[in-house]
Write a structure and sequence with these properties.
Blueprint (H helix, E strand, L loop, with lengths): L49 E8 L5 E9 L38 E9 L1
Antiparallel strand pairs: 1-2, 2-3
Length: 119
């Protein structure tokens, strides 16, 4: 780390520059750097999951239930951690999301519908 240089870029943190690369220099061969662990935090995770349910009585013994669930309702991008490898050309950039899979936290907006007949 270079003393006196901010870890946060002067124009603020963006996906393209989350860590200020000017605050770091590669240590000399055979020596350790002076940067501590966990210097910079990744963007926070925030996701709104909601559901609604309505049960209708059809007869004395039968009912119909409708259920809808929305995951990541506001479709907010859940960004991953910035690249911390100083030797990489993408050092300080966020190049991924926290979950590239189909289910779980960090996926794009999803809706789920259910209709159940009970008798």
């Amino acid at each position: 780390m270079i003393a006196g240089v901010s870890l946060i870029p002067t124009n603020g943190q963006t996906i393209q520059q989350w860590i200020n690369p000017a605050a770091f220099v590669t240590p000399a061969d055979g020596t350790w750097g002076n940067a501590g662990r966990n210097l910079v935090r990744a963007p926070g995770i925030w996701q709104a999951d909601v559901s609604m349910r309505k049960k209708l009585a059809l007869t004395e013994h039968a009912s119909l239930e409708f259920h809808v669930a929305a995951f990541n309702l506001f479709n907010r991008a859940q960004l991953g951690s910035p690249n911390g490898d100083i030797s990489s050309p993408t050092f300080g950039r966020i190049t991924n999301t926290i979950n590239p899979g189909a289910t779980g936290t960090g996926t794009p907006r999803q809706f789920q519908f259910m209709l159940r007949l009970s008798y």
